[in-house]
Amino acid sequence: MNNETPINVDGSPGLVGRAGQLLHAMRERAGKAVCLLDARMRTLTVEPEEGAATAEYAVVLVAATGFAAVLVGIMKSDAIKTLLTNIIKKALSVG
Protein backbone atom coordinates (compact mmCIF):
# COMPACT_ATOMS: atom_id res chain seq x y z
CA MET A 1 0.00 0.00 0.00
CA ASN A 2 1.15 3.53 -0.73
CA ASN A 3 2.14 5.61 2.36
CA GLU A 4 1.93 8.96 0.57
CA THR A 5 -0.87 11.37 1.50
CA PRO A 6 -2.70 12.70 -1.55
CA ILE A 7 -2.50 16.49 -1.84
CA ASN A 8 -5.04 18.67 -3.59
CA VAL A 9 -4.03 21.24 -6.18
CA ASP A 10 -4.22 24.05 -3.63
CA GLY A 11 -1.72 22.24 -1.35
CA SER A 12 -4.16 21.04 1.32
CA PRO A 13 -4.51 17.33 2.12
CA GLY A 14 -7.46 15.51 0.57
CA LEU A 15 -10.36 13.84 2.36
CA VAL A 16 -8.34 10.77 3.29
CA GLY A 17 -5.47 12.94 4.53
CA ARG A 18 -7.75 15.05 6.69
CA ALA A 19 -9.42 11.93 8.10
CA GLY A 20 -5.99 10.50 8.91
CA GLN A 21 -4.96 13.70 10.65
CA LEU A 22 -8.20 13.76 12.63
CA LEU A 23 -7.79 10.14 13.71
CA HIS A 24 -4.19 10.80 14.72
CA ALA A 25 -5.25 13.81 16.83
CA MET A 26 -8.07 11.83 18.46
CA ARG A 27 -5.67 9.01 19.26
CA GLU A 28 -3.24 11.42 20.91
CA ARG A 29 -6.03 13.00 23.01
CA ALA A 30 -7.33 9.57 24.05
CA GLY A 31 -3.80 8.51 25.03
CA LYS A 32 -3.39 11.62 27.19
CA ALA A 33 -6.79 11.07 28.82
CA VAL A 34 -5.95 7.45 29.64
CA CYS A 35 -2.61 8.52 31.09
CA LEU A 36 -4.26 11.16 33.30
CA LEU A 37 -6.94 8.71 34.42
CA ASP A 38 -4.31 6.12 35.29
CA ALA A 39 -2.34 8.68 37.30
CA ARG A 40 -5.49 9.78 39.15
CA MET A 41 -6.48 6.20 39.99
CA ARG A 42 -3.00 5.43 41.28
CA THR A 43 -3.05 8.55 43.44
CA LEU A 44 -6.41 7.67 44.95
CA THR A 45 -5.48 4.07 45.71
CA VAL A 46 -2.03 4.81 47.15
CA GLU A 47 -3.02 7.39 49.78
CA PRO A 48 -6.49 6.89 51.25
CA GLU A 49 -8.12 9.96 52.78
CA GLU A 50 -7.93 9.01 56.45
CA GLY A 51 -9.28 12.33 57.73
CA ALA A 52 -12.45 12.06 55.64
CA ALA A 53 -13.10 8.53 56.87
CA THR A 54 -12.76 9.65 60.49
CA ALA A 55 -15.21 12.51 59.92
CA GLU A 56 -17.69 10.13 58.27
CA TYR A 57 -17.51 7.76 61.24
CA ALA A 58 -18.13 10.66 63.62
CA VAL A 59 -21.25 11.72 61.67
CA VAL A 60 -22.56 8.14 61.69
CA LEU A 61 -21.98 7.83 65.45
CA VAL A 62 -23.81 11.09 66.15
CA ALA A 63 -26.74 10.01 63.95
CA ALA A 64 -26.90 6.56 65.61
CA THR A 65 -26.84 8.12 69.07
CA GLY A 66 -29.67 10.49 68.14
CA PHE A 67 -31.72 7.62 66.70
CA ALA A 68 -31.17 5.58 69.87
CA ALA A 69 -32.30 8.53 72.02
CA VAL A 70 -35.50 8.85 69.97
CA LEU A 71 -36.19 5.10 70.33
CA VAL A 72 -35.65 5.23 74.09
CA GLY A 73 -38.03 8.18 74.34
CA ILE A 74 -40.68 6.35 72.33
CA MET A 75 -40.32 3.11 74.28
CA LYS A 76 -40.74 4.92 77.63
CA SER A 77 -44.11 6.40 76.66
CA ASP A 78 -47.19 4.85 78.32
CA ALA A 79 -49.01 4.38 75.00
CA ILE A 80 -46.22 2.21 73.56
CA LYS A 81 -45.87 0.20 76.79
CA THR A 82 -49.60 -0.54 76.74
CA LEU A 83 -49.56 -1.42 73.04
CA LEU A 84 -46.61 -3.82 73.41
CA THR A 85 -48.11 -5.41 76.54
CA ASN A 86 -51.41 -6.02 74.71
CA ILE A 87 -49.59 -7.52 71.70
CA ILE A 88 -47.64 -9.90 73.93
CA LYS A 89 -50.74 -10.91 75.93
CA LYS A 90 -52.68 -11.57 72.72
CA ALA A 91 -49.84 -13.62 71.27
CA LEU A 92 -49.56 -15.75 74.43
CA SER A 93 -53.30 -16.32 74.77
CA VAL A 94 -53.85 -17.57 71.18
CA GLY A 95 -53.26 -21.24 72.07
Layout: helices, strands, pairs:
Layout: H1 15-46, H2 50-75, H3 78-92
Q: What is the helix/strand order? A: HHH
Mean pLDDT: 80
Oligomer: single chain
Q: Strand pairing plus helix content: what structural class?
A: mainly alpha
- Number of E-type strands: 0
* Unreliable stretches covering 5 or more consecutive residues: none
Q: Helix share of residues?
A: over 70%
The global form is elongated
Annotation field: number of helices: 3
End-to-end CA span: 92 Å
Radius of gyration: 35 Å
Strand content: under 5%
Sheet with most strands: none
Q: What report would you give on this structure?
A:
This protein has helices at 15-46, 50-75, 78-92. By secondary structure, it is an all-alpha fold. The longest helix is centred in the first third of the chain and has 32 residues, at 15-46. The chain is elongated and about 100 Å long.
Summarize the structure.
The protein is an all-alpha fold.
Characteristic key phrases:
mainly alpha, 95 residues
